[in-house]
Amino acid sequence: MKKFLAVFLVLAMALSLAACGGAGTSSSQPAGGSSSGGETTGSKTAITLWTYPIGNWQKAETVDQFIAAFNAEYPDIEVTVEYLDYTNGDDKVTTAIEANNTPDIIFEGPERLVSNWGAKGLMVDLADLWDEEALADISAVSEAVVNACKGSDGVYYEYPLCMTAHCMAINYELFEAAGALQYIDQDTRSWTTDNFVKALQALKDYGQGINTIVYCGGQGGDQGTRALVNNLCSGTYTNADHTAYTANSPENIEALQLLADLNSQGLVTFDPGIQASEELQLFANGTAAMTLAWNASNEASYAEQVSFTPYAMNFPSDDGVAELCGGIWGFGIFDNGDDARIQAAKTFIEFIADNAEQGPASVAATGFFPVRASFGNVYEGTEDADRMATFASFLPNMGDYYNVIGGWTQQRTNWWNMLQEIGNGADVTTAANAFVEASNAEIA
Amino acid sequence: MASKRNNGSGGTSHALMVKETISAYLFLLPFLIFFVGFVLIPMVMCLRTSFFDSTMGRADIFVGLQNYVTMWNDEIFRKALLNTVIIVVVAVPTVTAFSLWVASVIYQMGGRLRSFYRCIFYLPVVTGTVAVTVVWKWMFNYYYGLVNYLGKTVGAIENNVNWLGNEKTALWCIILILFTTSIGQPIVLYVSALGNVDPSLVEAAEVDGATNLQTFWRIKWPQVMPTTLYILVITTINSFQCFALIQLLTSGGPNHSTDTIMYYIYYKAFKLFEYGYGNAMGVFLAVVIALFSAVQFLVAGKNNE
Questions:
Q1: B100 in Cβ contact with B93 (< 8 Å)
Q2: Is A87 exposed, middle or buried (0-12, 13-18, 19+ CB in 10 A)?
Q3: Chain B partners of A5 at a C-beta cutoff of 8 Å?
Q4: How many C-beta neighbours within 10 Å does residue A324 have?
Q5: What CA–CA distances, in Å, run from B198 to A61, A248, B118, B170, B224?
Q6: Which of A383, A388, A440, B167 is most exposed by smallest CB count within 10 Å?
Q7: Nearest by CB to A409, which of B36, B167, B271?
């Protein structure tokens, strides 16, 4: 009897575990069928979309409208949406990948879709979406966008929707009161490194406590600190073919040393306790005189909080010509092995990103700018037209989209750790060399 | 006849035993399924994966003990281990001692007052970690935090201190927050344990002229020893597994000064997809916790005999 019971228990446990579906290894090649809620039944195909918080794409009322418009034309495709955040979104996707439970469509940028998941063979080749018309239309805006959506194997893992150039912003009234406006070129919204330093001094002399914060408490908004360092002395973050990090170049070391010196003079604050979101809050409440993490979407988000004019600016550079970090967002499809769902996902992406009526609305919801020349000015005639025209003027200054380099995830941690060390008084050259050595080692 | 009766009685006894055994196993079955499925098998998988170079998107590669070798040569891991040990060594005794002190003060209070204090001290436990952390983050804020405001008001500090952004203070801030969120349960347990101390023994000791201190150490302390052992073990495990505070407050910085093994496991496994390495650290942490707990059982258990 005892043996019978033991066998029964073992069988019961084995069956229950089989039902749990735990795979024995962590190998996560897509293996047909299983995904996060999508399925094909009869003539109806259900797909899932996971979206990071990109402008109003984090709001259900906006996305639901788009899905309703899509379903009016394609009633046989049912789209379920899940909203991710930047704090836990990556972990959620990682868990889904390991559980073989990925969504069909994901909305984010090339550093995740192309360099990360695409490079790991998890994404579908979107070459058929990139037809001649799309390629010409997107190339007309930016060749960098086209290249960013391709993996190192030449496969398109992302179909882009929108783009922006990340800039910085100053508290206009504070600058005016401190007599620091003389150091910026208001026509081009640019300034030289020398004038940036003079403006910092003017602000300090005026009594401003916190000028600008080199936030390094994590990777959030690190494009701001990268852009600041790279522009001050016209350095580059990677080499031209994105095969090596160059943060220890003489130009970058000079820039980092300048920031370290400014930190010791109390003109700049290195803060290892905060990330961009907190720095933005400090700017919005008037504590900090400028922010390094500005763009059109952030301006809209903080519009009701600020009691001054947040004046968008290029980053200071030695020659006065800044190269801004770009932001590109688009769609990718996880390879779940179900052709019907992959096709349905492509249909959805085409409708959202290419449709002459829906496309501009999809872009406008992001708060950024279209990657398609044919969409023109999607904000024309809206109350945001003037505001967005300002940010559109930064687009020509968008520099190399180096985010597609290998080891991107690892280097982000190395970067803020390096800034923490420099802010703490470490030797700049040693810290920069250590950053480059560690980051280059992660390039596959 | 007697023999038949015995046989009959033995048969009944055997059938009853089988019936009870089946019932017992059936009662155990749901828990067993979950225990095996969600504890034992993951533990075995964790151990197995620790011997592989395992990452996302490709098959695992057997590397033997390489992950463990890498671990010992990893400077950040050693730093995380040191930080974790500091947290445990500081937090466990202070949490236990403070809880015992508070409990010994409040357990004799009237019902309502005792409940009030239990609620107060238990509040950080039932409040979500994220909510607690957000409040602490605000209090430690470099620019407008309450701690800096109070420090400057009473003259303890001259300028604002970046509590969470300074290598010298960040870990101690983490320990302080961990302390406040860890004392709730031990206090409740101690109040309960002290309430169960046999009053006749206490009265007898007092009649014999024992002082309050003598009564506590000679009568009460031995009787709350099992509770102390439990508190030591769970506080040790919780301290070793300190993760959420680190992730929400410092991300291991500045300069890895608040990295803990748990956070480093998360970082390696979930951010860099180095599952094999992450699991190797997980196995190491489990062994260390088991050793610490065993030592506590041995020491506290011996005193308890």
A1: no
A2: middle
A3: 21-22, 25
A4: 23
A5: 64, 71, 22, 44, 11
A6: A383
A7: B271
Test B25 with A9 for CB contact under 8 angstroms.
yes
Are B146 and B152 in contact by the 8 Å Cβ rule? The answer is no
B251 touches chain A (CB under 8 A): yes
pLDDT digits (tens, 9 = 90+) for A10-21: 444 433 333 333
ipTM: 0.76
Q: Which long-range contacts (CB under 8 A, 24 or more apart) does B34-37 make?
A: B36/A13, B36/A17, B37/A13, B37/A16, B37/A17, B37/A20, B37/A22
CA of B27: which chain A residue's CA is closest? A9
Q: How far apart are CA A430 and CA A248, in angstroms?
A: 9
Question: Does B59 touch chain A if contact means CB atoms closer than 8 Å?
Answer: yes
Minimal Cα–Cα distance from B6 to chain A, Å?
22
Domain borders along chain A are 39-165+327-397, 167-323+406-441
Q: Distance from A210 to chain B by nearest Cα, in Å?
A: 9
On average, the pLDDT of chain B sits at 89
Torsion of CA A103, A108, A112, A117, to 10 degrees: 30
CA angle A189–A193–A197, rounded 5-degree value:
105
Say how far apart CA A186 and CA B12 lie, in whole Å.
Answer: 99
Å between A399 CA and nearest CA of chain B: 27
3-state helix, strand, coil in chain B (%, to 5): 75, 0, 20
Specify the CATH number for A39-165+327-397; select among 3.90.105.10, 3.40.190.10, 3.30.420.40, 3.40.50.300.
Answer: 3.40.190.10
Q: Do A97 and B59 touch (CB under 8 A)?
A: no
Cβ burial A28-56 (10 Å sphere, 16+ → b, else e): bebeeebbbebbbeeeebbbbbbbbbbbb
- Would you call A12 and B29 a contact, using CB atoms and an 8 Å cutoff? yes
Diameter of chain A by CA atoms? 93
Long-range contacts of A355-363 (CB under 8 A, 24+ apart): A358/A66, A358/A69, A358/A70, A359/A161, A361/A66, A362/A66, A362/A161, A362/A162, A363/A161, A363/A162
Residues in chain A closer than 8 A to B18 (CB atoms): 1
For testing contact with chain B, the best of A7, A10, A13 (most B CBs within 10 A): A13
Mutate to test the interface with A, among B273, B274, B277, B279 (most CBs of A within 10 A): B273
User: Whole-angstrom Cα distance, residue B236 to residue A208?
Assistant: 46
**Are A409 and B272 inside 8 Å of each other by CB?**
yes
Nearest by CB to residue B255, choosing from A1, A409, A417, is A417
**What tens-digit pLDDT sequence spans chain B (305 residues)?**
444 445 555 667 888 899 889 999 999 999 999 999 999 999 999 999 999 999 887 889 999 999 999 999 999 999 999 999 999 999 999 999 999 999 988 888 877 888 888 888 888 888 888 899 999 999 999 998 999 999 999 999 988 999 998 889 999 999 999 999 999 999 999 999 998 888 899 899 989 888 988 998 889 999 999 999 999 999 999 999 899 999 989 989 888 999 999 999 999 998 888 999 999 999 999 999 999 888 888 877 666 55
Fold of A167-323+406-441: D-Maltodextrin-Binding Protein; domain 2 (3.40.190)
Tokens of B272: 């860099």
| Rounded Cα distance, B171 and A277, in Å | 23
How far A378 CA sits from the closest chain B CA (Å)?
A: 36
Closest-CA residue of B relative to A408 is: B272
Q: Which two tokens stand for residue A330?
A: 């688009």
Model confidence pLDDT, tens digit, residues A326-357:
999 999 999 999 999 999 999 999 999 999 99
Contact B253 A417 (CB under 8 A): yes
* Phi and psi based region of residue A245 (left: phi greater than 0; alpha: psi -120 to 50; beta: remaining): beta
